[in-house]
C-alpha cells in the first residue's frame, strides 16, 4: 500500500513516488513532438491518430524513421519525433 502525503491545508493525497515523471520531459522534446503533431493535424485533422492504426503499420514507420536517422538520410525531417509518435500509436 502506498503512503499518503498530508498538506498544510489538511488535504491528504496518495504519494507520487512511483508515478511517471511526465512533467520532467524536456521542453525541447515536447516542442519537437508537438510540432510533428501539428503538421499531422494540419494534414489529416487534429486527433486523427487517435482513431487507431495497426501496430504493424506503426512499427514499420518507426523502423523506417530509425533507419533514416541512423543513416543520416532525409535530414530535413524530424525522425526522432516521428519515432516517438509511432511509439505513442
Short description:
Helices cover 51% and strands 7% of the residues. The chain is built from three helices and two strands; from the N terminus they run ββααα. A hairpin with a 5-residue loop joins β1 (4-6) and β2.
Strand content: 5-15%
Specify the structural class: mainly alpha
| Biggest sheet features | 2 strands, antiparallel
SSE order: EEHHH
Helical coverage, percent range: 40-55%
Strand order of the largest sheet: 1-2
End-to-end span in angstroms? 32 Å
The total strand number stands at 2
Count up the helices: 3
What is the averaged pLDDT score?
A: 94
Low-confidence stretches: none
Shape: elongated
Computed CA radius of gyration, to the nearest angstrom: 18 Å
Characterise this structure:
This protein has helices at residues 27-44, 55-71, 79-88; strands at residues 4-6, 12-14. It contains 3 helices and 2 strands; from the N terminus they run ββααα. The longest helix has 18 residues, at 27-44. With 89 residues, the protein is mainly alpha-helical. Strands 1-2 form a two-stranded antiparallel sheet. It starts with a strand and ends with a helix. Helix 1 packs across helix 3 and helix 2 packs antiparallel against helix 3 (79-88).
